[in-house]
């Protein structure tokens, strides 16, 4: 489980095509501290498993399903990525509960800069609209954010300078893809309410 608080802006240093999968080599000196084979690291909000690692890099295998359902398939050598290690028991939950299981992808539609923050408008797949509410939480490329406006086919978020400086959202331009994970609590509530209706 993650919190959506990005620890480090890493970089893709190699991509190996494995046929029905890809192996990524990623530089991230912070997240590799104490890393072990089999550990999880979120890459742009996607929970990946460490295969190999050294002092400042690790590799992870990404299967075709993940490449198809997320924006990881668009990564190339030199791409910057948001990195986060799993939350340790007893630590503060700074963002919200993030699983690292991408629900879909959106695209940056527009950016509106202000003096001290920036509003970013992002497209929203139709099947995720019901889970996104004003002032609710959403994960964008692994970043825990608060929804400012929830439309029928888009939503907006307000980004502070720290988020702009330390994450990929400071660099994303209109047309760029982003990974989206909606609040898992909303999905559980929907399933429970649906189950109650079916038994009545």
Automatic annotation (TrEMBL):
Domain Lumazine-binding intervals: 1-96, 97-193
Pathway field: Cofactor biosynthesis; riboflavin biosynthesis; riboflavin from 2-hydroxy-3-oxobutyl phosphate and 5-amino-6-(D-ribitylamino)uracil: step 2/2
Source domain of life: Bacteria
Molecular functions per Gene Ontology: riboflavin synthase activity
CDD domains per UniProt: Riboflavin_synthase_like
Stored SUPFAM superfamilies: Riboflavin synthase domain-like
PROSITE patterns, A to Z: LUMAZINE_BIND
Residues in Lumazine-binding repeats: 1-96, 97-193
Keyword Kinase assigned: no
Pfam families, A to Z: Lum_binding
Catalysed conversion reaction: 2 6,7-dimethyl-8-(1-D-ribityl)lumazine + H(+) = 5-amino-6-(D-ribitylamino)uracil + riboflavin
InterPro entries documented for this protein: ATP_synth_asu-like_sf, Lumazine-bd, Lumazine-bd_dom, Riboflavin_synthase-like_b-brl
Role summary: Catalyzes the dismutation of two molecules of 6,7-dimethyl-8-ribityllumazine, resulting in the formation of riboflavin and 5-amino-6-(D-ribitylamino)uracil.
Annotated protein name in UniProt: Riboflavin synthase
Source organism of this protein record: Streptomyces ossamyceticus
